[in-house]
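Hi everyone, sorry if this is the wrong subforum. Our group has a chain we'd like a structural model of before ordering constructs, and none of us has done structure prediction before. Sequence below.
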Amino acid sequence: MHQASITASPATEDPLSSDAPHHDPQGRPRTPSSGGAGRHAPSRRAVLWGTGALGAAGLLGTGAGVLGSARAGTDPRTVIGLWSQTVAFDGAGERVLVGVKESRPSVTGGAAPGAPVARGGGVPAVDLQPGTRLVRGIPPSAPVARSAEEYMAEAEDWLSTVRAELRDLASTALLDLWVLSEALPAPVAGWSRSWRYVWPRDAAFCAVAFARVGLMDRALATLQHLQSLQGEDGWFEARYDLATGHSPDRRTRQFDGTGLLLWATGEVLASAASAEREELAASLAALVERSGPLLLQTTGNGCSLPPAGPDYWELPEKQVTLWTMATTLRGLRTAADLTSEQAFTDAAQHFTTLLRGSFGAHGYQRYRTGGGADSALALFDATGMHDVIPSRQLRSLRSDLARPGGGIAPGASWRQDGVSWTPSTSLLALGLARSGEHEQATEVLRWLSDHRTDAGSLPEKVLFDGRPAEVAPLAWTAANVLLAIDAL
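Answer:
Right subforum, don't worry. Here is the predicted structure as tokens:
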């Protein structure tokens, strides 16, 4: 969860003007935003592509929420502004946030070529499909290697296999990933200022999604870039600045990047044509050679817990979390698959036993002996470790972490503010889909589809009453959605 705790900004302050601090999931005060108080729940409507309007295909409901609906008693002060409807390229080929600070893009009118981009009060209604141009005429010198149309054409074979009711959502997620990765070394988490970095965690899921939909060059480029950033000791920073390739702050390194990028490497190679696999594996050998030994070293060959530290909650941790356990086991198993070395096979078996005897003995909560349910539980099935968690626990996660808006929270101990988090909700959809729970996975995907922004992008949060909030689009959510749809 990136800046999982960003505070909502007062109406007089631009939330994009500075990095906002983390909040505490236990519920320390947050300044409520008044910017979104008058918004209606998002409608699914026609979006613009090129110069003509296309009807949004496969509409999945009215936005009432498949997983739940707002209930009485929810704190009405829990309002977080929608910072952007989507991200698009302007006439100079530069990315811009569309519909900043709760403005609602017009979808009925038009704008002349070269018309200025309106900030904070609506945007010209030209090419508002996520990621496409706000105005026409991007010069050849602009840093846009491929247009959205070219990009979507590369994924057309995959899109043609998607069931009709999910095709519009799949297209949205593809475009959200395109605008957050086009002409960049790897996808950034989002385009708002505090999200405009490469997180190894997100990049791993994005690389797998690219590979599964047929965009192998983007998948490989993402992994190779992260390989170039990895420390010689196998660790990754929490996030990386696009310009410098270094951490933008003193945020603690996060151990999950190592295991997740090993997993992503295995998935990408498995998705490649057999004739290309050996060459692709050689291009990613350094990542494997650095990551595997780190996992052995830090776990005592699978016999001890990995180091405690921040996970996807982005908060300091003194205890090892379920997320860190899952990513460590996934990394050990992938290292065994990729290298065929007995040391990794043995370590993975030892660590599985350790996990079951520690976290499993207490119901697989956030911490070894407590902390309540955690959406990290879905990661086991999402990454193919179906033998670890009982299927009934994955199914119960929907009710254990349910929020009134219809999605789920990151964990039971997260702040009780009614906010659904789409990274956790989409990870649940992925876990359900890959474990064979297709009906439940489809219900979750329908909910995500119904709660996109008016411009069609997937937001980071959904409020208690169904309104999208904060950053849109978010790369991790988009990647999870694509992978869940692919599994269906």
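For your construct planning: Residues 90 and 113 are 11 Å apart (CA to CA). The first strand starts at residue 47 and ends at 49.
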